[in-house]
From TrEMBL:
Superkingdom of origin organism: Bacteria
Keyword hit for Transcription regulation: yes
SMART domains: HTH_LUXR (SM00421), REC (SM00448)
Keyword terms: DNA-binding, Phosphoprotein, Transcription, Transcription regulation
SUPFAM superfamilies in the cross-refs: C-terminal effector domain of the bipartite response regulators (SSF46894), CheY-like (SSF52172)
Entry-linked CDD domains: LuxR_C_like (cd06170), REC_NarL-like (cd17535)
Biological process (GO), any one: regulation of DNA-templated transcription
This protein's name: DNA-binding response regulator
InterPro entries tied to this protein: CheY-like_superfamily, NreC/VraR/RcsB-like_REC, Sig_transdc_resp-reg_C-effctor, Sig_transdc_resp-reg_receiver, Tscrpt_reg_LuxR_C, WalR-like
Oxidoreductase found in the keyword field: no
GO MF entry, a single one: DNA binding
Membrane-spanning parts: none
Length: 212
């Protein structure tokens, strides 16, 4: 039996994933958490867990932050990232941070069952799209795009601003102060050589970080 914990700040999303996984006789959801604090509490009481199904965009500590913490702790629990973001935005970052797989929430729900089983067996799960990206990253010259040099939180701030969110909204969503978000924004503008949010949005669209 593959024992699973779900960590997503949206209760409806967790319920949908739980319902999908409950149809699999070899998978058991043993707990749910809405943020990093709840996850830590749950991990202390849940006993042995095989797979953590983790959202990447959560308030406070993001999924990428959580991945780094778990990796540093040397946990034996394997992490499957399930995100609303397309693969080309966060998949490789998540895998580098220690994730065993990455699934888009907008995809076929059945893929989550397959991914949990694959990760639960200790194998990596990647979609054909991610596999292609990994091959290209190995075979093309190392001309890294400017946004690849951003930190995980800076990239998250870039995507959210380019999606039309105000700094105050981003601060609320990430449980950060508006001043801290402003610092991230300033770093993004400096690293990308841009002057304002309009240029930032154009950059994000041209590089496929957000839809037009």
């Amino acid at each position: 039996m593959i024992k699973v914990i779900l960590c997503d700040d949206h209760a409806l999303i967790r319920r949908g994933i739980r319902d999908t996984l409950s149809d699999a006789p070899d998978i058991q959801v043993v707990g749910e958490a809405g943020d990093y604090g709840e996850l830590r509490t749950l991990l202390r009481t849940a006993g042995e867990v095989d797979v953590l199904v983790l959202d990447i965009n959560m308030p406070g500590r993001s999924g990428l932050d959580v991945l780094h913490v778990l990796k540093d702790e040397g946990t034996t629990m394997r992490v499957l990232v399930v995100s609303m973001y397309p693969e080309d935005q966060y998949a490789i970052r998540a895998l580098r941070a220690g994730a065993y797989g990455y699934v888009n929430k907008g995809g076929d729900p059945g893929l989550i069952v397959t991914a949990v089983r694959t990760v639960g067996q200790g194998r990596k799960y990647v979609t054909p799209e991610i596999a292609q990206m990994l091959v290209e990253s190995l075979t093309t010259p190392t001309s890294e795009a400017a946004h690849e040099k951003l930190s995980d939180r800076e990239l998250q701030t870039l995507v959210m601003i380019a999606s039309g969110k105000r700094l105050s909204d981003i601060a609320d969503e990430l449980t950060l102060s508006p001043k801290t978000v402003s610092v991230y924004r300033a770093r993004v503008l400096e690293k990308l050589g841009l002057s304002n949010n309009s240029e930032l949005t154009v950059y994000a669209i041209r590089n496929g970080l957000v839809g037009e």
